[in-house]
Amino acid sequence: MERLVVVGNGMAGTACVEQILKYAKKFDITVFGDETHVNYNRILLSSVLAGEKSADEIILNSLEWYQQNGIHLRLGVRITAIDTAAKTVTGDDGSTTPYDKLLLATGSSPLIPPIEGVKKSGVYVFRNLDDTRALLDRAHKNARAIVIGGGLLGLEAARGLQVQGCDVTVVHLMDTLMERQIDFIGGGYLKAKMECLGIKVLLSCDTAAILGDARAEGIRFKDGIELPADFVVIAAGIRPNVALARQAGLQINRAIVVNDHLETTQPDIYAVGECVEHHGVCYGLVAPLLEQGKVLAAGITGNGGQGYQGSTPAAKLKIMGVEVFSAGDFSDTTPGNDAIRYEDPALGTYKKLIVRDNQLAGVILIGDTSDSRRYMEWLQSKTDLREKRRSLLFPEPSADTGLDVAELPHGKIVCGCHGVTKGTIVEAILDRDLTTLAQLKECTRASTGCGSCTELCLHLLKAVAPQFEQEEKKALCECLPLSEDQLREIVRTQRLRSVQQVLDIYGHGTGCATCKPALSYMMDMVWCGTHLEDRSARFINDRVHANIQNDGTFSVVPRIRGGVTSPEELRRIADVAEKYNVRMVKITGSQRIDLLGVQKSDLPNIWADLGMPSGQAYTKGVRMVKTCVGTDFCRFGVQDAIATGIELERRFENLFTPHKLKMGVVGCPRNCAEATVKDIGLVGQEGSWQIVVGGAAGKKVRKADLLVTVESAEEALQAAALFFQYYRENANYLERTYDFVERLGIERVRRETIYAPLAVQQGLRGRLRKSKANSRDAWLEGDHPRHPTQFVQIQPIGGSL
Amino acid sequence: MSTERRWIRVTGCDSIPVREGKAVELAGRRIAIFNLGDSFLAVDDRCPHRGGPLSDGIVSGSNITCPLHAWTFDLNRGQVLNHPESSACLATFPVRVEDGHLSVQLPAEEPGSVSKPAYCAHRDRPVRWVLRKTPPPTNVRSSSP
C-alpha cells in the first residue's frame, strides 16, 4: 500500500482525505496537525466567539472517524523538515516518517503588520480554537477592545467580542471596510450597520504602536493620536505558511506554486488550501480550498478529470443581522463592465451586479442576501443574461419552495462549500433511507460548511425522505432564530440576566408574546432567581399573580398543602367570598378552593384577608400535591401520604417550571389520589416508595414511568427533587413532563438524575436549593407592589383641555 | 376635524411601566394606554375577538397580544396582525405628553357610538364585539418622551 502523508489537519487537507477515501482505500494515510484538536470548521470560530455555537459543535471529523478509516492521526506534531531525496518528513518530536506521496496543507497564519509592541501581553490574534478560547477568557463586560483590521475576520471578531459585553472599536487602515470584497458605497452601508450594532468603526487609521509597558493599554496611530483599550486583537489578514515548502526547495511566489493538478515543482509532493498559489491567485475562502481537495483526490487516485480551473471567490459575512455577500469582480471602472445598482438607505439595502458580455461577472449584496444563491449560480454557470435583463435585481416571481426544490436541476450545486449537488443529496436520501438533517450531513457533508444551504437541504429532505423527521432543535419563535438549548447556553455563557438583553443582542429588540414568557422562565431558572426580573415580559397572570378569566376578571386559589385545611381557613375563605362578592366558589380537581370572578384591584386585599400563601394556580409553576389520607386514617394505608405530600409541596412551592407541574402522593397502591397520572407521583407500598414521573390525565392520558423505588420517605423526596430540577433545566418552555420524558426516554432520565455521578446530582440539588432560597410567596407583593399601579385601576385626573 | 376633538388629561407618565399597558375609563369607554419606552399609544381596551382586556396583554415593539386568545394588533394603526380572515380593527387615540402627564384625545361623537357591538365580518366565530373599521388617524399622534 502506498503511504500518503498529509501535513496539516485543517479543512482543506482533511476534505481532500475524505474525497480520496471515497475513491479508493489505496493509501496508508498519516495526518499531522500542529493544533491539538481534531479537525474543526474554522469558518465557524466567529460563531463560537459570539456564543452561538460551542467548540464541540464545530468539530468536522471526530477521533472515531480517523480510527474507522484507518488514518494515523498525529496531533500536536509540527513537521519541521522534508527530505525530498529520502522521501521522509521529520517532526518536532524527532520522528521521521516516510512517504510515497506527500500532501502539504499547511494553511496560513495571521499576518502581523509592522506595529511596535505587538509582542506585549493583551495583544491577540484570531485564527484558531486556542485563540478563540483565549479571547473568550479575556473578554468581559465593559472591557474596551480594539480590533485592528476591518475585513471579514476582523468584523466577525468585533461582533463576537461585543456580544461578550466588550466595548469594541474596529480600526481599519483603508478608507472603507472589507475593501477586498465590496466597493466603497457598500462599505458605507456596512459601516452603518456595524455602528448600528454598537461597534465603533475608525477608517483610514494606520496603527503605529501598541501602548503600555508589559501589557497593552491602547494603541497609537501614525498621526500621534492615541486610543485606550484593555486589549487588542489583530485581524489584518493572513500569510500562507510556506517555510516548510521553501526549505524543501519547492517553488514559492506568494505561496506554494501548483499547476492544474495541484502538483508542486517537486515530484510526489502536492499542496492544497491557503498555502497554495494557482495561476498567480491565492485563495483564502473555504469553497475554493475544498474544490482543490476534490480535484487532487481525483487525480491522485487515478480518477483525474480536467484539473483545477480556479474558483470564483465568494464571501459571506457571518454576523446575525448584518447580511453581506460578495462574489466575483466588482469593479465598475473596468471597461466593458456594466454596473447595475439598487440601494435603499432607509432599509440599509444595497445591491450591485457587474455584467460583462451579457454574463454576470460579480455581485455585492448588503442587507438582503436572499438572492445570493441565484447569482452564484449565474456566475459559475456563466448564464446568458440577455433574457433576464429586466429582472436582474428583483427575484422572478417564485412559486412555493417545494416547487422550487423540484425544479432545481439535478446537477445543481446545493452546498457550495463542499460542492454537493442536488442529485447527490437526493440519491443519498433514497439509497440510505436518511430521515434527518444530521444523517444527511454525515453522509454527504452538505451544509457542514458555512451552513447557508441548511434550509435548502431541509426542503429536499422534506420533499424526498418518506419519513422526514424535523430536527429536535426547533427555533423558539420567529423573532429569535435559536433553539432553547442554544439560548440556555447563551444566557449562561454570555451572563445575560434580563429578557431584554437577550432580545437586544439576538433578536430585534422587540420579541413577541411567545418568546418573552419563555425567556422570562429561562432567566429565572438559569440564574436561580438572581436574574433581573422584567414583568413586562411576563404573561398577565404572572404580573398580578392570579388567573385571568374570559371576562377579564381573575380567579384566586390559595395554597392548601396536600389538600389539608382547617375550620379557621375555611371560615376566612367564606368571609372573603362574601365580602368581595366572589361570583363562584369552586372545589377544584386538585383538592383546592377556587374563588372566581375577582377584580384585579381587589386582589391585594383578598390576599391579606385570606392570610394564606399563593397556590400558583395561575402560572407555569408548582401547582399542588394531591394526597390520600394514608396511614393517618385509612384502614389500608401503608405509608404516611399526608405528611410526605405536605413536605413535598413545601420543598418545591413558589418555584417556576417549564409548564404547570402537578404532583400526587398516595399511601398505598390503590392510588386514590391518582399519583400515577401526575407529573411527579409518590406511590407508597409496604416498606418502600415508588417515584413515578411523566404521567398525564389531561388532553392526553399517560401512565407515569417508574423512576426508582426507594425505602424511606426522605429518599423518595430526594429522588423527586433530582427529577424536578432536571426537568426545570432541560425541558423546553411549555413542555409538560409527559412530553419531556417521552422525548428523552425514561432510561436517559434515570441515567442523568438518580444514576448520575454524584457531582452531577450535587449540582442539581445545589441549584434547586439556591432557586428555592431566592423564591418567595408571590402574594407578598400585595403589600409591597413592584410598581405603584401594579394592582391599581388608574383614575383619570379629568378635565378637558 | 381635529378641532372637534377634545383632549383629556389622564395620569402621570410614570403610572405606566415601560412595555406595559394600563386601562382607564374615559367618557364612558375603556381605553388602554401603552408605554412603549419612547412613546405612548392608546387604543380601545377591548379585543374585537372576545372582548379581552388588551391593557393586560404583552407588548412587543409596537404590537399588543391579547391575554385571552393571543390576537395580536399593531398599536399604531389598530389592525389585527395574526388573523388575516378578520377585518376587525381597533380604534386608536392620539396621546400627548405635557409636563410629565399624559393626555388622550377622544373623538367628538357621543360616547358609545363607536364601541357598540357591530356586525361581525367573519361568520365562523361567535364574535360579539367587533368595532366598525375606523379610518387610520393621520398626523394626529403627537408624543414626546
Number of helices of chain A: 24
How far apart are the first and last residues' alpha carbons of chain B, in Å? 26 Å
Question: What does the main sheet of chain A amount to?
Answer: 5 strands, parallel
Structural class by sheet pairing and helices of chain B: mainly beta
Spatial sequence of strands, sheet with the most strands of chain A: 3-2-1-7-19
Tell me which CATH architecture of the largest domain in chain A applies here: 3-Layer(bba) Sandwich
Provide the helix percentage of chain B: under 10%
Give the low-pLDDT segments of chain B. Answer: 111-145
Give me some keywords for this one:
heterodimer, A: 801 residues, alpha/beta, FAD/NAD(P)-binding domain, 5 domains, five-stranded parallel sheet, 24 helices, 22% strand, B: 145 residues, mainly beta, Rieske Iron-sulfur Protein, four-stranded antiparallel sheet, three-stranded antiparallel sheet, 10 strands, globular, disordered C terminus
